[in-house]
Amino acid sequence: MKISFDKGSAVPYYHQIKEALKALIASGELKPGDMLPSELSLSEQLEISRLVVHRAYREMVTEGLLIRKRAKGTFVSPPLKRDYNVVGALASTTENLLGYGLEPTNKILVQELVEADETLRAALHLTPGAQVLHLRNQRFASGLPFAIEDTYLSYERFPALLTLDLNNQSLYAILEGSYDAHPQAALDLLSVGAATREEAALLGIHKGAPVMRVERRSTDRGGLPVELTRSVFHAERIQFVARMVRSG
Fold first, then answer.
1. Could you tell me which residues come within 8 angstroms of residue 214 by beta carbon, excluding any fewer than 6 positions away?
2. DSSP per-residue string spanning 55-67
3. pLDDT at 163 (0 to 100)
4. What average pLDDT score do residues 203-216 get?
5. Which of 76, 110, 130 is the last residue of a domain?
6. What is the pLDDT of residues 121-169, one digit of tens each?
7. pTM for the full model?
8. What residue numbers bound the domain in which 198 lies?
9. Which among 46, 76, 121, 143 has the fewest CB atoms less than 10 Å away?
10. d(C-alpha 247, C-alpha 160), whole Å
11. Is residue 83 part of a domain?
12. Cα separation, 220 vs 126, whole angstroms
């Protein structure tokens, strides 16, 4: 197993390791059930601290990508069974909160350019070396922490978003008004997990508390990719409701 790792990059080491492992899983080089190197072995191979590898592995376990087996090691998780039968109207977080009679506000924590990894290139239809705009957004519902969003968009397509003041703004409204690129369709993948230390601090909960994770990939009216957003929701402040009818 070969991991691409750049010590000169501004991207944190643990995040580089996570993305490299995700790419290996996505490509099939790492298959469900495969055992990963021990934390000590990988840290020695990459010549970095074992704590860095520990954090990368721990967060991937939290995200359901890896599993730990006591006295055995760390393994790639079995593939998730995904069901796409729930269909409903597409709305932004701002629109949803307003619909519930809550006041939506947000604070931009990160607004930066990063090089797109393999997952982002595939999701946003980008070429190798392309840059993406990364927005980390802390959302509030009537003043209470509600969600953390990490949104990735093509910088070539949406360059103004790098410098716009996006605090207390609806990103979807800006995409519509400035680029005529309001998301028209989206695929949301939902899972549950445990809050990391950073997530817990931003959501006002304890580390390890349950959270809902949603990955959204949206397209515009022309079918072009708009965003890949990974959201972490305060589990006690959101519900997912599905109405189903038996066919036949």
1. 188, 189, 190, 191, 229, 230, 231, 233
2. HHHHHHHHTTSEE
3. 94
4. 90
5. 76
6. 989 999 999 999 999 999 998 889 989 999 999 999 999 999 999 999 9
7. 0.68
8. 93-237
9. 143
10. 47
11. no
12. 16
